[in-house]
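In response to a reviewer's request, we include the raw inputs and outputs for one of the modeled complexes. The two entities were modeled together in a single run.
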Amino acid sequence: MTGDEPLALEVRDLVVRFGSRAALVGVSFRVRAGEFVALVGPNGSGKTTLLRTALGFLQPSEGHARIFGDRVEELTPLERARRVAWVPQDEPMRDNVPLLDYVAYGRYAHRGMLEGESVGDRRLALRLLDEVGLGARAADGVLSVSGGERQRAILARALAQEPRLLLLDEPTTHLDIGHQLDLLGRVRALSRSRGVTVVAALHDLNLAARFAGRLVVLSHGRRVADGPPTEVLSEDLLARVWGVSADLERDRRTGLPYLVPHQITVTAPRTFPSPFVGPVHVVGGGGAAAPILRGLSEQGYRVTAGALHLLDSDAEVAEALGIPSAIESPFAPLGPEVRVQHRTLLAAARAIVIAPFAVGPSNLANLEDLLPYVSQVPTLLVRLPPIAERDFTGGRAEAIVAELRAAGARNVDDLTGVLAALRAELAVSPSAAGVPPPAPA
Amino acid sequence: MDPRGPTDPAPRRSYRWLWLLVAGLPGLAFVSPLFGPTAIPAGVVLQVLGHELTGGLLFPNPCAGASLPDSCSTYFVIVWQIRVPAVLLAIGVGAALGISGGTLQGLFRNPLADPFLLGISSGGTLGAVIVFVFFIGSPQVTAALPLFAFAGALATGLVMLAVARSRVGSVETLLLAGVGLSSLLSSIVAFLLIYNRQASTQITDWLLGSVAGGTWPEVGITFLVLLAVSFLLLLHSRELNLIQLGNDVAQSVGVDPSRVRVRLILLASLATATAVAFAGIIGFVGLVAPHVIRRLVAVDYRAVLAGSLVVGAVFLLAAWDIDLFFAELPIGIFTAFVGVPFFLAILFRRSERSTMGGG
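The model returned the following structure tokens for the whole complex.
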């Protein structure tokens, strides 16, 4: 129809329903060949659904997606795989397949039914492993390498398809900040050197603004903004879409927008005056502590929190509730200063609550710093979800939790358990100021 | 010097094991006809084999000019019409069950899947019971039994195929449908047997499986099916590798998982139904063979499928030889006797983290 190069991805009036719920409501946008576009939006805004529809995994009830001019459902699986590749958040790997074989799996669509892997396939796989920095580990199994390395291997496998369009679904979720930057940096470099168009769903707005030339913002299944990060990101948009009020600052070196949320809408009335009991310190991160911070505040406890990262939703809740906290700059590992602050808060605490937060290399210090205090004051360990499921440190966090337990930390199930245990341990109901309940038997 | 560094907890795997098995199979097959309840001099057995295998060119007929021509021709019949077909049937059935097991474990991404997962054993049993209940005492039993068992087994496989083709046919649905269908068929079998006590004793023998009654036509059919099915299954080993990474990833790389599922179920059902028709229900082989390969050789499905074929054959043949050494009992009893100690030895050879996922 037109003489121009076809669009890499064109999504028109896309409606996708799951039962009666509409996950996408008439989304349209176009991605030109060579662009790096980030799909951003809060949880449940439709980012993953959009990608899965573009890949042909989901059938839209209205509208369509085109990949380089053709409707995705009209391409055979092999044709589609030669045009578009996918990097998921994680892959359910069961077998310890050598990395070289694993990357060569990506050549599937380029081989006939009766053809084996050619020497060229192996050579391409090895070159891709080299390009993602895993050339020396080609013989190692996918289960033997670290999470960051595995994610790079997934990227190499996707690139082995020699796709013209690469779709990534929150590829950095399980990575620490160093590996997040590394992976997205490699995606951008490879997309430039190979002329691959990239559309990535990303959670982190700062990362998105840093790597993508353009942001497409989704909210409740609708496209609400679209353009370069400098134009799209505004304090107004953050408030409307994420319910976050934030300062938008500019990175002095890159000129890119950088947001610093300072408050979220929290409806936590502080009806009780500060009780007599000393502060209860909550260790958390990633939103795991938020309900506990809120619940304790509502009950009238004086609460402290730490060590949290700026931008983290626990840090936002703490700030909104006026809870004194030890706060580290976003993404950085907990530094010596913040750890001193955190230990000061711990030393002042009358009780400690350990929220079920995900432990990675950047916040492992939170657990390590607890050890000396556990035997001093009542310490409650919120048990669920189990530590094994949120330990991203290769078992170190799990070991420390076992130590904490041995040193006297008590297991509780949830916020209700925390409140009950605190009432018993501190032998005072903070809300009935001055009237202690009968001591537990 | 521990070869396992901290980054490689998996045991060392090697194709050496597979070549060893491939090399061992013909040798084992060649000596197997020496065993049997009738005492036949080894020389005679080898002469018969030599005569028949070379078409009489290199070895003369051992019975020509023998001092006791009558007993010699009896030996001849026993070796060539009874022992050799049984040996070949053991190889064919073992191989068919092995490769079906490897296919289904890959397809269902479940290490407990086996060739009977799709309700095939219950379907075959129902076919066999119908023969015992309705044809008992009639001369057609021998002919009807394999036919009905095959029909029952394949019919069940086809029902499962229909489930797989339907829109709700996820892997979990299929597993559950197979278990459910098996229960239903077993109930029908139990119902029929309550009214026919005589059939219930005969069905026990059949349920334990046997290759003893193997005939040359059965061997021929088994190997024809095995050849065709194995060739087609091996063509799908790359798809099986990709399916291990989950449906979404497989799809994104260009595999059509639902189409692959339908093909693989059809092929595995066909191979299993053939085995059931001629040898009854022989458990354990299809369950274990793929694990042996995954532990000793490689996790790549090209190796798992080809290897399960060989391991299944060697394993069932070995079980048959040991069975003959003691007494000619139903072979199903011996597969577990022989297999379990061997299997446990491999399982505990080295603790392996890699099959548990994780990371």
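As requested, we also summarize the result in words. Residues 9-93+161-258 of chain A form a domain with the Rossmann fold fold (CATH 3.40.50.300). Residues 76 and 261 of chain A are 46 Å apart (CA to CA).
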